[in-house]
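Re: [ENG-882] Designed sequences occasionally contain unexpected residues at chain ends

Forwarding the minimal case from QA. Structure tokens:
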């Protein structure tokens, strides 16, 4: 089956597409194309020429992947070429994180347990939760063979649940280039919101793009 681009469009990953892109480090065609979008400093105008450049030497595979992602709802059409925000992270991250938690309690930590930004948590609690996040990354890595292969559970999220199975405190790994962050959210998460895509886009531009260039 031959794939063609019906019309030129401004495209970016949807929140679901951004989530798939960063939930694991396993490489595949879908993640490579999603990373292409997230590496741009402004929303990409997708043309046949752009897809040929991104997909060389297999342009047909690129168009096939593009159609597949659109069918899954992992790409969204944007009205204009919005640019990624390049302001200081200490100013940007708190506004983004508070919208990802129904309780406005969230934080972002790196794989070493260093808290980058926290909203809603007391300082002492944020530091300890960040250390817990780093421990969970190590724990998951130790048992990854069992979870991913034997039990067929590819997710690497961890959480504290109440008796009804609702999340009280959840840990979501974000694989950004060579970096591994943990997004920690108290209460029900709101990862379906557009702000999650913007968070991943900003982090990808700051960390993945620079590591690739190096």
């Amino acid at each position: 089956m031959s794939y063609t681009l019906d019309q030129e469009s401004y495209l970016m990953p949807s929140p679901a597409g951004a989530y798939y892109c960063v939930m694991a480090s396993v490489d595949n065609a879908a993640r490579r194309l999603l990373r292409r979008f997230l590496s741009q400093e402004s929303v990409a105008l997708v043309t046949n020429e752009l897809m040929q450049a991104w997909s060389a030497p297999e342009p047909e595979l690129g168009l096939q992947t593009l159609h597949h992602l659109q069918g899954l709802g992992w790409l969204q059409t944007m009205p204009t070429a919005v640019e990624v925000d390049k302001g200081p992270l200490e100013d940007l991250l708190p506004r983004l994180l508070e919208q990802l938690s129904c309780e406005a309690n969230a934080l972002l930590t790196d794989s070493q347990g260093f808290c980058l930004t926290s909203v809603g948590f007391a300082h002492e609690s944020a530091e300890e939760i960040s250390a817990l996040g780093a421990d969970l990354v190590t724990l998951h890595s130790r048992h990854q063979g069992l979870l991913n292969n034997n039990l067929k559970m590819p997710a690497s999220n961890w959480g504290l649940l109440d008796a009804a199975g609702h999340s009280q405190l959840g840990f979501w790994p974000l694989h950004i280039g060579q970096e591994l962050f943990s997004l920690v959210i108290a209460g029900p998460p709101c990862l379906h919101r557009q702000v999650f895509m913007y968070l991943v886009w900003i982090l990808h531009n700051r960390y993945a793009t620079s590591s690739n260039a190096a």
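QA comment: On inspection the terminal residues look reasonable. Helices lie at 15-22, 29-38, 48-55, 59-72, 89-97, 123-142, 144-150, 194-213. Proposing we downgrade this to a documentation issue.
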